[in-house]
Design goal:
Mean pLDDT of chain B: 94
Number of helices of chain B: 0
Largest sheet of chain A: 6 strands, mixed
Shape of chain B: globular
Oligomer: heterodimer
Low-confidence stretches of chain B: none
Low-confidence stretches of chain A: none
Radius of gyration of chain A: 14 Å
Helix content of chain B: under 10%
Structural class of chain A: mainly beta
Strand content of chain B: over 45%
Largest sheet of chain B: 7 strands, mixed
Distance between the termini of chain A: 38 Å
Number of strands of chain A: 12
Helix content of chain A: under 10%
Mean pLDDT of chain A: 94
Structural class of chain B: mainly beta
Distance between the termini of chain B: 37 Å
C-alpha cells in the first residue's frame, strides 16, 4: 500500500496565482514528520517546508504553506503568487519510525507548470 | 558551507558490470541516505548509514550495497548490473539525530545508464 499518495501527476497554474498540491499519507505512528521537496530540472532536491505531527499550527515558509489536516491524513502544499521559477517536480515526503529508526519516504511527485 | 557532493555525475555501464558511486555529505553531517529515482517508481529508499553503520535498509536486492567511512563519506555499490538499474541515484545527508524533523540535503545525483 502506498504510504504517500500524490494524486496529481501534473498541474498547471497561471503566473501570480496560487496553487495547491495534494498529498495524503498513511502511518500508524504518533510521531512523524511531513516534508515537501522541490526538484527542478537540474535534478537536485530542495527542501521547502516541514510539518511535525504534533504541530497545531500550519507551517509556513515564505510563499509556501502546508495545509495540515491530521484527521484526514493530508498535508497539502500551497504555493502563493506562483512564479515561472516554480515550474518543477514537487515531492511530498514523510519521516516515520521503524525497526531501524526514522526514515524518509517519498510520494510519486507532482509536476507543476507555471504559465506566463 | 559546501553542499552534498556526488561523483560521478554521469555513468554508462553495460549489463553484468559493477559500479561504485560516491557521496560526500555536508560537513558535520553524520548520516547519509541513498535513493534510487526512476520515472516509473519515483524515489525509492535504498539505505541509510550513520556513524559507519547501516541504520536502515529499503527493499532492494543484495546487489545493492553501501558503506560509510569515518569521515562520513559514503559509497554505494551495485554489482551485476541489470538494465532496470538505470536510474538517477540521489544521496542525501542529514545531521543523523534520528528524529522526525530531520530534513535531508540532497546532492545533484549520479545518472546511471546500463546498456
Amino acid at each position: 500500500a502506498q504510504k504517500i499518495t500524490q494524486t496529481q501527476p501534473g498541474m498547471f497554474v497561471q503566473e501570480k496565482e496560487a496553487v495547491t498540491l495534494d498529498c495524503t499519507y498513511d502511518t500508524s505512528d504518533q510521531s512523524y514528520g511531513l516534508f515537501w521537496y522541490k526538484q527542478p530540472s537540474s535534478g537536485e532536491m530542495i527542501f521547502l517546508i516541514y510539518q511535525g505531527s504534533y504541530d497545531e499550527q500550519n507551517a509556513t515558509e515564505g510563499r509556501y504553506s502546508l495545509n495540515f489536516q491530521k484527521a484526514r491524513k493530508s498535508a497539502n502544499l500551497v504555493i502563493s503568487a506562483s512564479q515561472l521559477g516554480d515550474s518543477a517536480m514537487y515531492f511530498c515526503a514523510m519521516r516515520e519510525g521503524g525497526t531501524g529508526g526514522f526514515k524518509t519516504i517519498f510520494g510519486a511527485g507532482t509536476r507543476l507548470f507555471v504559465k506566463a | 558551507k559546501a553542499g552534498v557532493t556526488q561523483t560521478p555525475r554521469y555513468l554508462i555501464k553495460t549489463r553484468g558490470q559493477q559500479v561504485t558511486l560516491s557521496c560526500s555529505p555536508i560537513s558535520g553531517h553524520r548520516s547519509v541516505s541513498w535513493y534510487q529515482q526512476t520515472p516509473g517508481q519515483g524515489l525509492q529508499f535504498l539505505f541509510e548509514y550513520f556513524s559507519e553503520t547501516q541504520r536502515n535498509k529499503g527493499n532492494f536486492p543484495g546487489r545493492f550495497s553501501g558503506r560509510q567511512f569515518s569521515n562520513s563519506r559514503s559509497e554505494m555499490n551495485v554489482s551485476t548490473l541489470e538494465l532496470g538499474d538505470s536510474a538517477l541515484y540521489l544521496c542525501a545527508s542529514s545531521t543523523g539525530g534520528g528524529l522526525p524533523d530531520e530534513k535531508l540535503f540532497f546532492g545533484s545525483g549520479t545518472q546511471l545508464s546500463v546498456l
